[in-house]
Amino acid sequence: MAIITRAIRDQFNPAKLSECVGQVEMITIDETKAIVAGAHDAFENWKNTSSVTRGEILRVTADLLEQNIDTVAETATREMGKTKNEMIGEVKRGASILRYFAQEGMRATGEVLPSASEMKILYSTRVPLGVVAAITPWNFPVAIPLWKIAPALVYGNTVVWKPSIEAALTGQLIADLFEQAGLPKNVLNIVQGRGSSVGQVLLEAPEVKAITFTGSNGVGQNILNTAGHTNKKIQLELGGKNAAIILADADLNLATKLTIEGAMKQTGQRCTATSRVYIEEAVYDKALDQLLVEAQKIEVGVTMGPVSSQGQYENILAAIEKAKSEGAKLVFGGGPTKDQSDGYFIDPTVFTNVTHDMAIAHEEVFGPVLAVIKVKDYEEALRLSNDSEFGLSASIYTSNIQKAFDFINRSEVGLVQVNDETGGAEPQAPFGGVKNSSTGAREQGQAAKEFFTTMKTVTINTK
Ligand code: NAP
Ligand code: MG
Question: Which of 16, 52, 364, 385 is most buried, judging by how many CB atoms fall within 10 Å of its CB?
Fold first, then answer.
């Protein structure tokens, strides 16, 4: 028998770099191929299992997740740095995602249609695709995997899931809960390893019929280059550069509080984070003062965690330096947090005097950094906010209903918010972006069914 040598990776706590949180055993390329083959073999049985039974397994997984909320949240906090409170919120959301899709097992998947012939019965039904590869990032280590895995499973697909290596221990806990809930063997398969090795195998495997990915634009492009010419279904949820607009008639207390929350929650490491804010000049000074008061309230190390990794730490600090060198004015934060050098802590950071051509106005930072931009009026704010390669989320703060509806209509994004922050998605609502933020297929809600199934039209001649 061949001896398999697996690489071992130590996982460190980004809040305390001396603390090893655990070890990840990385599987080999050959093992990954065997796992994909196993998922392929398991498909026929799973597909033929009643969708009600499939849904029931998701419901039991939701119960188990709630029972294990502390362990899962604690593991993720120590592994990728999000605060425990933020993780508790995410795990609860994970449970509601599972419950929503558990119910899908009892809902209709097709329709009966009239036929031109009185002798014929005509109907449509939805069928699963086969093996789905789910490739996920570290920043929502529970919710993003679940909003891919849960619909994939309930609609009858088998899944090979590659979590981010930076959230591997959390991933393992989630996979174990599905097993405890009674999911048959090989229906959900977790593969631990780097994207460039095991991830790449998933992109190339002929048994994989669909790829659902959330992550960076660079890796998204690689997925298209590798699998775009095949007939695999591909869903990519990518980066963002989300804008908020504060108009002169806005409730400034609400607008500034939510803009800072939108920018700094989860240390700015959300694809929907508020990254730039356009403020009408009439209220600019007042709004800026209030934004800084809100930023002041953040306690780094208590209400705001570290960034997740050395790579993130270096990239964010480099983006801050670049903004300074391009002439943006640093008005808050701007570097590593004092007395927190045992972790990847960065102060909440705010820049003013930002012009549209600066990198800080159009490149994703994925960290606790907000660019503040003064505008003449709503039209200028709308034009600048839309002038972006990204189109994930955008907010407007106003008490003017015409402007709110105009923004809903003209904002070039997949998620539009009025008097609310740029982040946030409920399991029953479709989620996703336009432009370079997404390939278009929406996640969650009823939209998930479109991606994870295909349609079959049936004609029965009763004659
Ligand atoms: P990433 O670097 O693109 O990684 C995402 C996943 O892809 C990881 O599991 C990674 O594996 C894997 N991967 C890397 N190279 C691969 C390859 N050649 N083939 C197959 N898989 C590969 O993203 P991240 O740093 O984890 O997350 C941050 C990014 O995600 C940001 O750009 C953010 O905007 C985006 N994001 C978007 C959304 C959305 O819904 N639009 C939500 C959250 C995050 P490793 O384990 O090796 O890293
Ligand atoms: Mg990355």
Answer: 385
